Amino acid sequence: MPAETLYKVFKFKIMKINRRNFIAKSILATAGTLISSKYTFAKEPLKLTGKKNKPVVIATWDHGFDANKVAWKILSKKGRALDAVEKGVMLTEADADNLTVGLGGLPDRDGYVTLDASIMDEKGNAGSVSFLQHIVHPISVARLVMEKTPHVMLSGEGALQFALANGFKKENLLTEKAKQKWKEWKKEAKYEPVINIENHDTIGMVAIDAHGNLSSACTTSGLAYKMHGRVGDSPIIGAGMYVDNEVGAAVATGMGELVMKTLGSFLIVEFMRNGLSPQQACEKAIERIKQKLPDYKNFQIGYLAINKSGETGAYSIQKGFNYAKYDKKGNRLIDADYLLK
Ligand code: GLY
Fold first, then answer.
1. Which residue's CA lies nearest to atom 4 of ligand 1?
2. What is the pLDDT of residue 320?
3. What is the mean pLDDT of the chain?
């Protein structure tokens, strides 16, 4: 498919912001009222009245279930949330059968498996890698960027060189199964992401540990058959995931372009800072997509959030988004509520 046609498919028309509306809304916000009709911000933000539930870990999609088990081993021994989320998503990265994360991920339209990942700890430190090839565990490279460099994000060849210099092995990530699917796709090379299938992508995980500290991780091979060089929301701090240890944490999955345009995870944390529950915050972030991006009905976005009390929330545009939650009650898969009923 020619690049221009592909670009048209990607093109979303963002509604023009009406200047007068903007000013009116700013005045309202200053007066302590909220823009939306459905929820109002608490007068005194961040009153966490809920009973504390910790540790807790939540992760996107079916693959979150097994990833949670790994995370829980760490959390249940009073380990650090950062270690739990990194080790948890590593399980999915190494799963060759999983077509949307790490090893075995579907390639871009030119046949390259390119990976994005990010991680954030309780101190507000963040690290990410984008457009990384040949490394099974981009999340661990992201953690090293966070801990060993003065930077937040390394990309492409530079990220690969950094990984190799730090002992990671160069591997072929394109499995026979993914290669066959790509060859099949190439026969028509139609770019029509299928809701909840090709978009059934990222593993995003957020956790609160026994000490009450929050961390988050997300990792993906991105959109199947994307343009070579395309980077999604997952490595963008504040889009793919975000943590503020005083407030809460959030992660995103689905069509990254919509998340990037609305900085979804940061938005959710800010909504929680202003008094919304994790569930209300996720719903409002989806509502923001609806307000700003007219094509939203064609795509799936799912958000997960957790607050400082260990309360959790989840919401998506379409039916079909699920997540795994592990706390003292055990590990279970839960269907998220959604907008388009
Ligand atoms: N949410 C992952 C991506 O769009 O790449």
1. 256
2. 93
3. 88
State residue 190's pLDDT score. 81
Cβ-based neighbours of 307, under 8 Å, separated by 6 or more? 48, 50, 247, 248, 272, 277, 278
The better pLDDT of the pair 15, 245 is held by 245
Element (H, E) at 92: helix 81-93
Q: Which atom of ligand 1 is nearest to the CA of 221?
A: 5
Pocket lining: 204 vs ligand 1, CB cutoff 6 Å: no
Per the CB < 8 A criterion, the answer to whether 209 and 75 are in contact is: yes
The Å distance, Cα 253 to ligand 1 centre, comes to 6
Q: Hey, which of 194, 223, 227 would you mutate to test ligand 1's pocket, going by the most ligand atoms within 8 Å of its Cβ? A: 223
Query: Do 212 and 248 meet the contact criterion of CB atoms below 8 Å apart?
Result: no
Mutate to test the pocket of ligand 1, among 12, 93, 114, 202 (most ligand atoms within 8 A of CB): 202
Q: 103 is written with which tokens? A: 């090893």
Domains of the chain: 56-338 (3.60.20.30)
